[in-house]
């Protein structure tokens, strides 16, 4: 293509990117950045890239996450540690949601401005985040709705004979849907499930991991979704053990991320969308519907970010 056409096209994409008009998703901004470099032959400077992120959101999470797409840029330890805390917090959040019934203290903790911003930013789903906030507000102000959500948890995730029951064990979702075990028998574990549970138990033991809500009856199996998400939170939490003041390139960063990516690919990626789809379809309460959608968005952004970080190192 003629350079006389390339240069103005590159400037156009650069302006769109800096104005934040390419859409609010990371994918949209990355696409514009790619087009800008393709047609202009330039790479956006760190200052311009920073400005783009500040324009698109006042959310503190985005001010950190931009580093994931800078390739050769170094990340400050305090930003790196903060990003790890946010990610670990979200994994623990979803682990808690599917471990036991919600209580008022838990719901009220989700209503702080900081938590709302982090959930919206980390999960990259402002629509579901907004709906969830509105739903929680309604639940807290209406005792009938609160008791409905309590009953909903029992029917969806605890009582197998309920016609809306959704098995919270990952061994149920691995393999072909037509070959899944009967809903009434989900408490049993077949040979493949035993191997999976044993492997998970060894991983948990290696890290001395114990789930906070492990006393719940439904959490006696290591392949429970809450165990999986809680362990992933623990893996992400290991990132903060690095010494302050160091930059990303000096950390054993690739090994840390590789461990996370390996566990994510083997024990999370293949079931999380199936489970979330079941929840969104069968749940009556908007609380669980929006939580499921946020979890899907989060898993998608996690996979993209982990792949990006591994490619950069």
List the helices and strands and how they pair.
Elements: H1 3-19, H2 26-40, H3 46-56, H4 60-65, H5 77-97, H6 104-109, H7 113-123, H8 126-141, H9 143-158, H10 191-206, H11 225-237, H12 253-267, H13 272-282, H14 286-312
Helix pairs in contact: 1-2, 5-11, 7-8, 7-14, 8-9, 8-14, 11-12, 12-14, 13-14
What is the arithmetic mean of pLDDT? 74
Order of helices and strands: HHHHHHHHHHHHHH
The total number of structural domains is: 2
Low-confidence stretches: 1-24, 39-49, 51-58, 68-74, 181-188, 243-251
Number of E-state strands = 0
CATH superfamily of the largest domain: TorD-like
CATH domain class name of the largest domain: Mainly Alpha
Give the helix level as a range of percent: 55-70%
Taken from the alpha-carbon principal axes, the silhouette is globular
* Number of continuous helical runs: 14
* Broad structural category: mainly alpha
Annotated CATH topology of the largest domain: TorD-like
Question: At CATH's second level, what is the architecture of the largest domain?
Answer: Orthogonal Bundle
Gap from first CA to last CA: 33 Å
**Strand proportion:** under 5%
Main pleated sheet: none
Radius of gyration: 21 Å
Organism: Candidatus Acidulodesulfobacterium ferriphilum
Protein name: Molecular chaperone TorD
Pfam family, one: Nitrate_red_del
InterPro entries: DMSO/NO3_reduct_chaperone, TorD-like_sf, TorD/DmsD_chaperones
How would you sum up this structure, described in words?
The chain starts with a helix and ends with a helix. Helix 1 (3-19) packs antiparallel against helix 2 (26-40), helix 5 (77-97) runs antiparallel to helix 11 (225-237) and helix 7 (113-123) packs antiparallel against helix 8. It has 2 domains: 1-56, no CATH class; 73-312, TorD-like (Orthogonal Bundle), CATH 1.10.3480.10. The protein is mostly helical and 313 residues long. The chain is built from 14 helices and no strands. The chain is globular, with a radius of gyration of 21 Å. It comes from Candidatus Acidulodesulfobacterium ferriphilum. Keywords: Chaperone. InterPro entries: DMSO/NO3_reduct_chaperone (IPR020945), TorD-like_sf (IPR036411), TorD/DmsD_chaperones (IPR050289). It holds the Pfam family Nitrate_red_del.
């Amino acid at each position: 293509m003629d350079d006389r056409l390339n240069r103005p096209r590159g400037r156009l994409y650069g302006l769109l990117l800096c104005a934040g008009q390419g859409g609010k998703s990371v994918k949209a901004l990355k696409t514009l950045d790619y087009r800008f470099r393709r047609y202009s032959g330039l790479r956006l400077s760190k200052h311009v890239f920073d400005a783009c992120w500040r324009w698109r959101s006042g959310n503190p999470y985005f001010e950190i996450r931009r580093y994931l797409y800078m390739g050769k840029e170094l990340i400050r330890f305090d930003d790196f540690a903060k990003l790890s805390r946010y990610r670990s917090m979200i994994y623990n959040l979803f682990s808690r949601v599917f471990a036991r019934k919600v209580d008022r203290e838990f719901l009220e903790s989700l209503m702080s401005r900081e938590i709302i911003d982090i959930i919206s930013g980390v999960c990259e789903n402002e629509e579901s985040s907004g709906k969830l906030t509105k739903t929680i507000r309604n639940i807290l102000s209406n005792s009938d709705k609160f008791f409905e959500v309590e009953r909903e948890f029992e029917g969806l995730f605890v009582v197998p004979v309920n016609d809306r029951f959704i098995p919270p064990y990952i061994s149920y979702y691995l393999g072909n849907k037509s070959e899944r075990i009967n809903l009434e028998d989900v408490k049993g574990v077949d040979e493949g499930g035993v191997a999976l549970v044993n492997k998970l138990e060894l991983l948990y033991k290696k890290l001395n991991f114990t789930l906070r809500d492990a006393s719940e009856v439904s959490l006696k199996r290591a392949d429970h979704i809450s165990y999986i998400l809680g362990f992933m939170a623990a893996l992400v939490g290991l990132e903060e053990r690095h010494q302050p003041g160091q930059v990303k390139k000096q950390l054993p960063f690739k090994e840390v991320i590789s461990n996370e990516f390996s566990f994510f690919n083997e024990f999370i990626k293949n079931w999380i969308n199936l489970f979330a789809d079941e929840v969104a379809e069968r749940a009556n309460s908007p609380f669980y519907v929006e939580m499921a959608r946020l979890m899907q968005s989060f898993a998608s952004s996690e996979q993209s970010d982990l792949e990006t970080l591994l490619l950069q190192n």
